[in-house]
């Protein structure tokens, strides 16, 4: 399980990073990096102000 | 860049820059890193700040002040307006800042005080030995470096990783995060001396829409909603709805988005060799969302305690505990009071909000004390008195300082 961040929508605010319970996300300048700690829980998907995140199922 | 400093500060926002300036003035060897290539940009803030508290840190400068605010106007779901003007709390109320310039001015002050600054430089991990933070790993232009220090100050914002790397739990629940979107608009046609707040569960579930003047007929128009209420309708959608209905003639010239932690104080903000400040320490105000002043206050305390710890040759939590105690006594106390208000506020129905606004609308707040305001509120709604009893008690003891800190 993982997530996809649509870089054409993402506003690189980092709200997703702040709510990620496993610390799998990182805001690097203008993009979000996702590492293998991601469990696909979907909390970031819910919080994103622009709706840039999808959970891969 | 050297391979060793007294203090490394991660993040060059207001908290980081004040910490850097304070530590450098104390004679410490300071490095402040910022992952962005530009300090202050992109903005993730509504840019409102209280005058009195700002002046404790920096002399106001017209180059980064967009508007001088005399009061606020709160609009309930049925359109009832409650105005509060400047004499109300004896304060001087606030400014709306140009953060892009403000943040650079603060960074410049830390540079003038002697701090070294690196941009486009990102912390990738902490160096931890014997349960003590001894520096950071960083990446600059694709190359990795290890830089050691006696103390690391994590001022790396809402998306902070520094605390987590040291084992401090800083993850925020969706119900403890306001998710926000904002436009800078021209042709705003609002009173440039007032901040406006629109309440209502349809407009902004468990949050509000704000309009802050930015000078020259411009305004920051933004929305924050509780993360747990987001999903179907996102902040950007709700903001677009609001703009269409309320500001059809406004032209959007910038988009700003972000998250504001409204969780209240977290259990721990220090580790051996480490302090967290500002949004990284979740020090933003749960009711206003304001974080600039708290971050600057905490940055100053952290800079001073860093100097003390290094002078005493003990950077363990034994010494850094003083930072923890000092910020909790001041900032922390206010945050916890605001948290009580927030927990009550998010449960309000639109009827509650309307009835509160109605009972307050004809009161002239310019000549009223805050105690009178609270009395009027409680008279209108007995349940509110019970929900907010903790604060009321504090207020009577004059412990609470209702400063204007909308951000």
From TrEMBL, chain A:
Give one GO molecular function term: metal ion binding
Q: Which residue range or ranges hold the 4Fe-4S ferredoxin-type domain?
A: 1-27, 28-57
Task: Provide the coiled-coil residue spans.
Answer: none
- Supply the Pfam families for this chain: Fer4_7 (PF12838)
Mind listing the UniProt keywords for this protein, alphabetically?
A: 4Fe-4S, Iron, Iron-sulfur, Metal-binding
Q: What is this protein called?
A: 4Fe-4S binding protein
* Organism name: Methanococcoides seepicolus
């Amino acid at each position: 399980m993982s997530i996809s961040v649509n870089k054409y929508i993402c506003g690189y605010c980092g709200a997703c990073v702040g709510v990620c319970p496993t610390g799998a996300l990182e805001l690097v300048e203008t993009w979000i990096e996702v590492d293998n700690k991601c469990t696909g829980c979907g909390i970031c998907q819910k919080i994103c102000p622009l709706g840039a995140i999808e959970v891969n199922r | 860049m050297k391979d060793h400093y007294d203090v490394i500060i991660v993040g060059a926002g207001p908290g980081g820059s004040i910490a850097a300036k304070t530590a450098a003035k104390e004679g410490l060897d300071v490095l402040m890193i910022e992952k962005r290539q530009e300090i202050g940009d992109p903005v993730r803030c509504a840019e409102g700040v209280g005058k009195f508290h700002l002046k404790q840190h920096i002399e106001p400068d017209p180059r980064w002040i967009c508007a001088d605010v005399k009061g606020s106007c709160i609009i309930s779901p049925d359109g009832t307006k409650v105005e509060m003007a400047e004499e109300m709390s004896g304060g001087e109320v606030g400014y709306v800042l140009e953060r892009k310039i403000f943040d650079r001015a603060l960074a410049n002050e830390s540079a003038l005080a002697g701090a070294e600054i690196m941009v486009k430089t990102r912390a990738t991990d902490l160096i931890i030995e014997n349960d003590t933070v001894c520096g950071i790993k960083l990446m600059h232009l694709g190359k990795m470096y290890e830089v050691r220090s006696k103390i690391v100050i994590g001022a790396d914002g809402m998306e902070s990783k520094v605390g987590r790397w040291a084992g401090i739990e800083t993850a925020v629940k969706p119900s403890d995060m306001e998710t926000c979107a904002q436009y800078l608009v021209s042709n705003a046609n609002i009173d440039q001396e007032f901040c406006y707040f629109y309440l209502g569960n349809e407009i902004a579930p468990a949050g509000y829409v704000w309009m802050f003047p930015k000078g020259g007929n411009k305004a920051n128009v933004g929305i924050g909603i509780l993360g747990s209420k987001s999903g179907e309708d996102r902040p950007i959608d709700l903001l677009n709805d609001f703009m269409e209905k309320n500001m059809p003639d406004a032209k959007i010239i910038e988009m700003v988005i972000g998250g504001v932690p409204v969780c209240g104080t977290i259990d721990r903000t220090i580790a051996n060799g480490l302090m967290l400040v500002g949004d990284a320490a979740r020090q933003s105000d749960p009711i206003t969302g304001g974080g600039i002043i708290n971050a600057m206050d905490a940055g100053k305390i952290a800079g001073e305690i860093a100097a003390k710890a290094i002078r005493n040759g003990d950077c363990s939590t034994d010494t850094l505990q003083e930072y923890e105690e000092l910020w909790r006594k001041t900032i922390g106390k206010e945050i916890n009071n605001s948290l009580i208000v927030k927990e009550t506020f998010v449960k309000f129905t639109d009827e509650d909000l309307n009835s509160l606004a109605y009972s307050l609308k004809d009161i002239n707040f310019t000549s009223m004390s805050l105690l009178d305001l609270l009395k009027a509120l409680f008279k209108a709604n007995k349940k509110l008195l019970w929900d907010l009893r903790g604060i009321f008690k504090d207020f009577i003891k004059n412990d609470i300082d209702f400063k204007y800190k909308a951000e």
